[in-house]
Design a protein that fits this description.
Layout: E1 7-8, H1 9-16, E2 20-21, E3 26-27, E4 29-30, E5 40-43, H2 51-58, E6 64-67, H3 69-72, E7 78-81, H4 85-96, E8 104-106, E9 111-112, E10 117-120, E11 125-127, E12 133-135, E13 142-144, E14 149-150, E15 155-157, E16 164-166, E17 171-172, E18 177-178, E19 183-184, E20 189-190, E21 195-196, E22 201-202, E23 207-208, E24 213-214, E25 219-220, E26 225-226, E27 231-232, E28 240-243, E29 248-252
Parallel strand pairs: 4-5, 5-6, 6-7, 8-13, 9-14, 10-15, 13-16, 14-17, 15-18, 16-19, 17-20, 18-21, 19-22, 20-23, 21-24, 22-25, 23-26, 24-27, 26-28
Antiparallel strand pairs: 1-3, 2-7, 11-12, 28-29
C-alpha cells in the first residue's frame, strides 16, 4: 500500500466530483472501517452503520469517511457525501494508492483436496452513479493457520482490504464457500454445502451443520453448534445450539 505519499482530502473529493465536509486532511492510506486510524480513508454503507462503528469513527476524527448524507450528522470525522460509497472508495484505491499483490499465507500441516480454490477475488459488486453493478477492488489476502484441511470444490475468497482469516485446526468439508473478509476461529468444523457470507465472524470450536447458510456481517460466538440446514441471519452468543430458518437458540451448551 502507498503510505509514503499523502493525498489531500479535497483532491479526492474533486476527483469523485463529490462534496467534502470537514477538514482538508492529508490522507495516507485506505483502511477498512473497523481498522480506521488517523489520516486514513474508508467508506461506510448505511445498512451496516451501528453504534460500534460510530464510536470507531468518532475516535479517529482526523480520518476521512465516504458515506451517505444520512450518516454524516452523527460523525465527527471529515466526510465525502456519496450515494455510492463502496464504489467511490474502490475508485479511490485504483487512482491514488499503489496496492501490493494479494498475499496468501498458509501455516504448517496444511491439507487441500483437489479443486479447492484459495484467494480468488470476492463477489463484491456495487452500483455506480448510473446504477450499473461494478466489481469492487479486492486487495486483501487470505491467512490460514496450522493444521487446516479444506475439501474438494471449496472456495475461500480473499479480502477487500484486510485478510480473510482461517484459524488453526479448522476443518472445512467439500463444496463450502467462504466469502471475503470472513474470520473463522480456531478448531471450528464446517461441513459440506455451507455458505458463509462476507465479513461474517465464526468463533472458536464451532460446528456448522450441512447446507447451513450464514448471512454476511453476522457474528457467531465460541462453541456454537449450528444444526443442519440452518439459516443464520443475526448475531449468536457463545455456548448455544441453534437450528431452523431463521436460526433460533434451541439450548445452551454445557
Amino acid at each position: 500500500m502507498n503510505r509514503g505519499k499523502s493525498i489531500r482530502a479535497s483532491l479526492i473529493a474533486n476527483y469523485l466530483n463529490k462534496k467534502l465536509i470537514g477538514a482538508d486532511l492529508d490522507i495516507k492510506e485506505p483502511k477498512s472501517i473497523s481498522e480506521l486510524s488517523g489520516n486514513a480513508i474508508s467508506f461506510l454503507q448505511e445498512e451496516y452503520f451501528n453504534s460500534s462503528i460510530e464510536n470507531i469513527i468518532n475516535q479517529n476524527t482526523n480520518s476521512l469517511v465516504i458515506c451517505s448524507s444520512n450518516i454524516k450528522r452523527r460523525l465527527k470525522a471529515s466526510v465525502i457525501i456519496s450515494k455510492t460509497p463502496a464504489f467511490d472508495f474502490s475508485k479511490i484505491i485504483k487512482k491514488f494508492f499503489k496496492c501490493p499483490k494479494p498475499k496468501i499465507t498458509i501455516g504448517k500441516n496444511f491439507f487441500k483436496r483437489k479443486y479447492a480454490v484459495i484467494g480468488g477475488i470476492g463477489f463484491g459488486f456495487r452500483k455506480n452513479d448510473q446504477g450499473v453493478q461494478k466489481r469492487l477492488t479486492h486487495i486483501g489476502g487470505v491467512t490460514i493457520g496450522d493444521n487446516v484441511e479444506i475439501g474438494s470444490f471449496s472456495t475461500i475468497d480473499r479480502g477487500v482490504l484486510s485478510n480473510t482469516i482461517i484459524g488453526s485446526d479448522v476443518k472445512i468439508d467439500s463444496h463450502v464457500h467462504i466469502a471475503h473478509n470472513v474470520i473463522i476461529g480456531d478448531g471450528t468444523l464446517i461441513t459440506a454445502g455451507v455458505i458463509v457470507g462476507g465479513s461474517a465472524v465464526i468463533g472458536k470450536k464451532c460446528f456448522i451443520g450441512i447446507n447451513s447458510s450464514i448471512r454476511d456481517h453476522v457474528k457467531i460466538g465460541n462453541n456454537v453448534f449450528v444444526g443442519m440446514g440452518s439459516v443464520v441471519v443475526s448475531d449468536i452468543p457463545s455456548n448455544v445450539t441453534i437450528i431452523g430458518n431463521p436460526a433460533r437458540i434451541l439450548k445452551k451448551n454445557i
